Amino acid sequence: MATTVTTPDAEETCVYCGSRIFDHDPVCVRDCDDDCGSPLYFCNYACLSAYIDENGLTTGDACEWNPGENGRC
Length: 73
What we know:
Blueprint (H helix, E strand, L loop, with lengths): L26 E3 L10 E3 L2 H10 L19
Antiparallel strand pairs: 1-2
């Protein structure tokens, strides 16, 4: 899957809190399971984490560990 990497505009804002991303420690995220759509920009990992939690993005995405089986995910 090919994607083009570009630097966001200097005025780009955080998708979660609305702060300018370059005023902080920006993080860019793409959903490459869905054709690598438009990137989402977050001003820091805390906003990314809050966005993930509030949107339930980890639900169903983890392996199930059963120690009685092979001991691996």
